[in-house]
Input
Amino acid sequence: MSAAIWPITEKFAAEVGDIDLSQPLPAPDLDTIRAAFDTYAVLVFPDQRLSTEQHLDFARHFGPLETTIAKHRADAKLRVDEELADVSNLNEKNEVWSETSRQRMFSLGNRLWHSDSTFKYVPAYASALYARSIPPVGGHTEFVDMRAAYDALPEATKRRINGLVAEHSIFTSRAKLGFTDFSAEERAAMPPAPQAMVRTIPQTGRKCLYLASHAGRVFGLADDEGRELIESLMAHATQRAFVYTHRWRTNDLVIWDNRQTLHRGAAFDDLRWKRDVQRATVKDVANSCEQEGIATPIQAAG
Ligand code: OGA
Ligand code: MN
Output
């Protein structure tokens, strides 16, 4: 049976049925998935039973993968493969983390609206998050359709932000939560990155807002003016009309297009329930300014 696409919302999220991602993907199914991924920006694959390799292999259909930023710490103890971001609330012994653990303080940043890896010069294109265990209450993931958010902007705002570039840094989003416990190696490994505030998606020609909690400044604007602009655009984009909430079931695999979405994790009782979700992350093809043909205000950092 070939893959079937079932819309969850009219234009933003769809479920993909009749497919087993643990098996090699027939070319027509891959074409169906790729086309659906361009039409929708969030795809849900229910009831998948995947090894780590099968999860990574599926993500590799979309391009080369990132390695986890946890590796920037010399004392890192990884629970999962280094090509996965461990988005769980578990320590390396598979136990629920402790209330004051560094891992917990850092990961709470996922509860702020963001797009993955915009703080890297080359950000993330697609993320494939696989749920190995899910709490009985809460822990949803919310997604914003940044195409719809862009389309709904007043024309004057579209003109104002056209060609603008924001500075993104992991330290900006973490500082919003009062978290500043980074090593010198981490600071050196993750310099701020410029990203276009409006992106054009090559596959569809659609424009979308491109922002995240990592964005702190806008090049060419005074700091407070830039911050206010970012905040007002984020408030606009995260209105409920643009949001799809994914309520996880164990063994769901969800992929999203970071170029045209925001996401955030919703609260749950993370000191009580295990939530084992792991993310394979596909790199974008280039920095967003380069893709938009805008001169980058910061030198390439890799
Ligand atoms: C992620 C992420 C939020 C969540 O995997 O990139 O931000 O709900 N996840 O776990
Ligand atoms: Mn994320």
